[in-house]
Design brief:
This protein is α/β, with parallel strands linked by helices and about 300 residues long. It has helices spanning about 10-15, 25-30, 45-60, 80-90, 90-95, 120-135, 145-155, 200-205, 240-250, 280-295; strands spanning about 5, 20-25, 35-40, 65-70, 90, 100-105, 135-140, 160-170, 185-195, 210-215, 220-225, 230. Helices cover about 30% and strands about 25% of the residues.
């Protein structure tokens, strides 16, 4: 089944070139079906790249999805045109009276700031509060996972001595959990962050369970025991070349950056890195959509109950 995206969104042309079935809003009006309403709060500076990555993963499912792209009103994006944002994005005020089957909140390059120093922190807190009553299941990525763990449970983040950067091996700790259904006992995933949450803090919270972790990169997937909130500390959505782009960007700026670990063949940045996490990424998003959104959200979306 297709994913319904705004007419003219650049991701449409990109994904169709990859033989991924997308449907624009005009064609969707002829469909007699209630699609899953999924909102994506895109906090990444590379808006279009992130749109492509997330939509690619959401579209790998037999479920029909209606996508809403959200932005924070309290921060102006400088890496994408104002016309793109005005055409394809909506603010929280425009959707706060609606309900959604699912919400994805992306990472953001603000890890070195205290949460309260992020210019859109108050607005993000308002959105996370709203999500508890207006969204059935929320999926948080990287910094958003750290922010939501702090917001919902008071779990702190800690600075790392150097950037956690590369492709790391992870252990599947709960193979019977539906989110990890079909996962290998070991799998790899990208990380790119300057801060961390710690296992002991999460383990001390009875409302949370750790589903996957890495000896090198630490805790990776965390779930609420009510199975409506999910936290992923890495970037499974990244393309093959995303870490390379980050590395070369920092090198060109003269910033202190090490090679991403376990990424470039022979640790030579002249070599093209293979994508060895794509299968895991598709399965992670498909499992979330299937087991925690589609199979649990009321058909009458207005009947979504509070998460508390």
């Amino acid at each position: 089944m297709p994913i319904k995206i705004p007419t003219g969104l650049p991701a449409g042309e990109v994904l169709q070139s990859e033989n991924i079935f997308v449907m624009d809003e005009l064609r969707a009006t002829t469909q007699d079906i209630r699609p899953l309403k999924i909102a994506v709060l895109n906090l990444m500076p590379t808006k279009i790249t992130t749109e492509n990555q997330i939509i690619r993963l959401l579209s790998n499912s037999p479920l029909q999805i209606e996508l809403t792209l959200l932005r924070v009103a309290s921060h102006i994006s400088v890496n994408v045109s104002a016309q793109h944002m005005a055409t394809f994005y909506r603010t929280f005020d425009e959707v706060k009276n609606q309900k959604f089957d699912g919400l994805i909140i992306t990472g953001a390059p603000v890890e070195n700031l205290d949460f309260s120093d992020v210019d859109y922190w108050d607005e993000l807190c308002e959105i996370m509060t709203w999500s508890k009553t207006n969204v059935y299941s929320t999926f948080h990525i990287c910094w958003a996972a750290q922010a939501a763990l702090h917001f919902h449970y008071g779990i702190p983040k800690y600075p790392l001595p150097k950037k956690m950067f590369g492709i790391f091996k992870h252990k599947n700790l709960e193979p019977t959990h539906p989110l990890l259904r079909g996962f290998d006992e070991e799998f790899v995933a990208p990380h790119s962050r300057h801060t961390e949450v710690r296992r002991e803090d999460i383990a001390a919270c009875p409302k949370l369970e750790i589903l996957a972790e890495s000896d090198e990169a630490g805790v990776y997937i965390i779930a609420s025991r009510k199975r409506r909130l999910f936290y992923v500390t890495g970037h499974s959505e990244y393309d093959s070349g995303t870490l390379a782009a980050e590395y070369f960007r920092d090198v060109s700026r003269g910033l202190p950056i090490e090679l991403p670990k376990h990424y470039f063949p022979n640790d030579d940045p002249a070599n093209i890195p293979p994508n060895v996490w794509r299968g895991h990424a598709h399965l992670l998003f498909s499992n979330w959509l299937n087991y925690f959104v589609y199979q649990n959200t009321p058909y009458d979306i207005d009947k979504i109950e509070s998460i508390e």
